[in-house]
């Protein structure tokens, strides 16, 4: 299931413009999914499992710890070379 967070104006045939209102959709055309994801107005909505309570979050697999990266020393800014015209 997909959710549009804002209305989406798109053209299914390249001539006519249609507006899809914000909301949840079972199916959307592939082109709508591409456009909406590029505009950052698309969310995926997970289905609730039958044995899962409405307020219960699905169990997430544990993420392995990432080793800390050493901080990089800041590079001093290099002055721009200026050539004088004579």
> Major β-sheet, in short?
3 strands, antiparallel
> Level of helix content?
10-25%
Strand/helix succession: EEEEHE
**Binned strand content:** 15-25%
Q: Please, how many helices?
A: 1
Q: What's the gyration radius in Å?
A: 24 Å
Main-sheet strand order equals: 4-1-5
pLDDT below 50 for ≥5 consecutive residues: which ranges?
Answer: none
What is the distance, rounded to the nearest whole angstrom, between the alpha carbons of the first and last residues? 69 Å
Briefly note the structural class of the backbone. alpha+beta
By DSSP, the count of extended strands is 5
Region (Disordered): 46-86
Compile the SSE list and pairings.
Blueprint: E1 2-4, E2 8-10, E3 18-20, E4 23-25, H1 30-38, E5 42-44
Description:
The mean pLDDT is 76. With 86 residues, the protein is an alpha+beta fold. The radius of gyration is 24 Å and the shape is flat. Helices cover 10% and strands 17% of the residues. The relative contact order is 0.19. The protein has a domain of 43 residues. The chain starts with a strand and ends in a 42-residue tail after the last strand. The longest helix is centred in the middle third of the chain and has 9 residues. It has a 3-stranded antiparallel β-sheet with strand order 4-1-5. The chain has a two-stranded antiparallel sheet with strand order 2-3.
């Amino acid at each position: 299931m997909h959710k549009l967070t804002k209305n989406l104006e798109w053209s299914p045939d390249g001539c006519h413009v249609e507006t899809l209102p914000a909301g949840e959709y079972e199916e959307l055309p592939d082109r709508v999914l591409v456009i909406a994801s590029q505009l950052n107005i698309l969310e995926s909505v997970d289905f609730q499992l039958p044995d899962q309570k409405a307020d219960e979050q699905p169990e997430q697999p544990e993420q392995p710890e990432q080793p800390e990266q050493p901080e990089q020393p800041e590079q001093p800014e290099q002055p721009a070379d200026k050539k004088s015209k004579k």
